Amino acid sequence: MGRRVRWVGLLSVLTTLAGCKGGTGDGCKATEDCEDGLVCYDYECLPQERADLRCSKQVGCLLAGRCTARNGECVAADDARCRQSDGCKASGACTIRGDECVAAQDSDCQASRDCRDHAKCKAIDGDCEATDESCRQQATCLSIGSCSASYGGCDVGSAADCQRHDGCRERGECSFRPTCTGDICTGGDCYAGKDADCTKTKGCRWWGHCTAKNDKCVVGSQDDCRLSEHCATWGKCILEAGSCTRLFGLTCKDTEACKTHGHCEGDQMCSPASEADCRASRGCKDDGRCKLLREVDGGGGECAASCRQSRMCAELGYCSEGSEGCQAGSDADCQAARICQEEGLCSAVSGRCKAGQDDDCRTSLKCRRHGRCSAQAGKCVVKTDADCRRAAPCRGGTRCHAQDGSCVASAAACRASSLCATSGHCSVIDDVCGAATDEDCRRSTFCRTMQRCTREGTDCVATEKDCASSHPCKISGQCALEHGHCRTTTDLHCRKSYGCKVHGLCSQKDGRCVAAVNGDCKESRACKYGQRCRASGDSCVGNL
Question: What pLDDT is recorded for position 19?
């Protein structure tokens, strides 16, 4: 039998060299060497359908619509194949141009996962690209400052981006530093570069993080502690090991809470007992904080010059004088306060700041972070799926369903998400998307391209069985599991592969099959029909 096969192969070579057209299964160098109706693919004359079938099993067909055999290669041939490919769904490459699928229409980009996840929503020169406008509409613009279009999507591109994002107000990260290699800069990062940025933050007001050092806002001096809310309210007025602390055993009267702020009453939580405490404080002498002011219902209290100059005004919007204390006298009082920016309590109702309408909530930090974008009973809550879609937990198409006041994953959202398509996270597990069955994994791109087809926990992983039964094992010898990936570990894997038979890739090197010696090439179709019989650069090249 072996002798007969060798004679058939020799006859095929002689037929080709003699100028005769090859039939099905005969060797070839180009389609011109084959009979009419046949094409040359992998140095073999085949009917177009059989050659296309081989292409359809390649990763390039799945990812980029390259499912048609032409001139010895797999190429994209029509819009239908492009639209069926993962490249269309993922990156908007839905239109044929030449031999490849490209992004030609904004509508294709806008329907893609790259638009939803990375703001790449406009077709430019065959690709879906991000624009400054689309980046500013992403939740990541406000959460991390990535408001400018850059290579690969959205990035932090300027000081304005840093000053726009939440980290500027919360952590003083308002300064911009570009990331450059030589003269080429791509994006950058936001950091705390000036004390002035730190002093505007909640961290400064509450915990004394008022000094910029090593790109962060930290407690830099005794004054940082002394002027903080932690000092005024809890007596934690001493700088020790980078934090504001209180010496053990001291009452409020013994601390700077009393001496600086007039908050002399209490053992743990400090407050002013009388206006005399305020008048005796350093705050009265230095800043005129001599009056004892209460909140709208007579509770709380602090020493201040007036309601408008008080912490109650800056934090809670209690900026106007009332019959029982400081209160929110107008919407403007609330809108200027931290409680509006963070919690959406921006409307003055009966002297207090509350969420009076949905618009109050939608500009707040709680809306962007947690989906609490609807006003209900004076507070911002999660009410609808639309609320969740506005928030960070919905990025990637996962926790987009409103349930019991929270944003959770839904079965429909998981199945429609990019996580399902790419990594098999198609089922709801503990309110987030994860892989619940092997079937979830088998429908994913991870399975079809990396053989991660078996569920383990809530993720998809590759197993020995997945590797050994995979198409890459048959084609390129990636048959063994190593460090979670299917790889080539022995020459035997390579010698059994289609790549060895056709292209001479018969030796294992660094986890893949290569042409290492001339002997690898000599028995291959590439040598017999393409005169590529010499090993060089891990491939078979010209004649010996």
Answer: 56
